[in-house]
Design goal:
Length: about 400
């Protein structure tokens, strides 16, 4: 009997997605729980698994957009796995026959690849066994496979592009070159389209204004360096700057509550909890996972949450609920070298804090010029709900907490 594989509902407001990569091919026998394909939506990427064992028959190609509820494959559960007849053959086979497959490096088999590496290999249709690994025991690293992408694309006469920035696997419909080869037209991924729509909506629906300040990072750097070894040994995670800024933002939100609110129709909703979104850049675009109840968490808890979200974002394993319900957002452009920027609001929130690169600059300290590690801070806010005085007060509170970390609830 052929069991239909349908696109499942993966969250509110999501009506379609793209079958970015098939993990199994037509004719393959699959077991219940095996990953069949990755569905990329405008919010997250989700692996869809088989609910029953049988032989797979795919009905749509990679890169095709599909709607929720659409049938994309069937599984014939009347057929059994070919592997069931293999054990007796292997048992009586000569040892030489069993040892032949060992000639290929085990580390490069699909099952030995890390999730991030396997994803790139599958999306770019690379032959892992032909790529030289620079990792431990010859394992392939993300850098190894990314380096192989341009070479692979050129060898088959396709356009060179970065994996995951548009559609995962180029097709004739989605990746078209101009006649003279001067440009390539690609269909935007659902996530990138969603990001574009959100940014435009934010600009059109909110009265966005940005206020700036700067803070001296000397005290935080000194405290972090002094506590790093003991903190890491105790908690198994490094102490970063983001946890300080999350804590400082919570203190500022308490001092200036309107920044932690939002406008809904003709009402203003004041949030009395602190779920802080932390912007994370990925190959597919910017995502903002939310650190829940940041006011109740320790520095170690915050660092663990940030590290977990960053890993999930890189591997495309964030869930929709990870991205929903934030009350305020922090974006750190400094990790890319940004010295100053005006961040755009993350609707329906009313405020977003922009962190930037730490640079040593001459500043006046007690009437003398000293070189200090300085960071520019930017707060973009919805002027419909927040006045300039409140915005400036918020930013000064963040600055004070960073320049004097003792004002924060330190727990390490």
């Amino acid at each position: 009997m052929a069991i239909e594989v349908k696109i499942p509902a993966v969250g509110e407001s999501i009506s379609s997605g793209v079958v970015s990569v098939w993990h199994k091919k037509s004719g393959d026998f699959v077991n219940a729980g095996d990953a069949l394909f990755t569905l990329e939506t405008d919010k997250v990427s989700t692996e869809i698994t088989a609910e029953t064992p049988g032989v797979l028959d795919t009905m749509v190609p990679e890169g095709q957009e599909v709607k929720i509820g659409e049938v994309v494959a069937t599984i014939d559960d009347s057929k059994t796995a070919p592997a069931e007849s293999e054990p007796p053959e292997k048992k009586g086979a000569p040892k030489k026959t069993e040892q032949k497959p060992a000639a290929a490096p085990k580390e490069k088999s699909p099952t030995a690849l890390s999730p991030a590496v396997r994803r790139i290999v599958e999306e770019e249709h690379l032959e892992a066994e032909k790529i030289s690994g620079t990792g431990k025991d010859g394992r392939l690293t993300k850098g190894d496979v990314l380096a192989a992408v341009p070479q692979n694309r050129k060898s088959v006469g396709e356009a060179v592009s970065f994996p995951g920035t548009a559609t995962p696997s180029p097709t004739a419909e989605q990746d078209r070159r101009s006649a003279d080869g001067r440009f390539t037209r690609k269909k935007m991924s659902p996530l990138r389209r969603k990001i574009a729509a959100q940014l435009v909506m934010a600009q059109h629906t909110a009265a966005i204004l940005t206020t700036f300040n700067e803070c001296d990072m000397s005290a935080v750097q000194e405290l972090r360096a002094k506590s790093q070894e003991a903190f890491t040994k105790k908690n198994g995670v490094k102490l970063g700057f983001m946890s300080f800024f999350i804590k400082a933002s919570v203190e500022a939100l308490r001092a200036v509550p309107p920044v932690n609110g939002r406008i809904e129709d003709e009402d203003f909703i004041q949030n009395n909890f602190y779920d802080i979104g932390v912007a994370v850049g990925t190959d597919r675009g910017l995502v903002v996972p939310v650190v829940r109840d940041a006011d109740k968490k320790s520095f170690a808890d915050l660092e663990r949450d940030i590290a977990d979200y960053a890993a999930k974002a890189r591997e495309g394993k964030l869930k929709i609920e990870d991205l929903q319900g934030g009350t305020f957002t922090i974006s750190n452009g400094g990790v890319y070298g940004s010295l100053l920027s005006t961040p755009i609001l993350n609707p329906p929130q009313s405020g977003i804090l922009g962190m930037h690169k730490i640079m040593e600059r001459p500043v006046a300290v007690n009437g003398k010029v000293e070189v200090r590690p300085m960071m520019y801070l930017a707060l973009s806010y919805d002027h419909r709900a927040i006045d300039g005085k409140e915005a400036v007060t918020f930013l000064i509170k963040v600055k004070e907490c960073i320049e004097d970390p003792k004002k924060l609830p330190l727990d390490f």
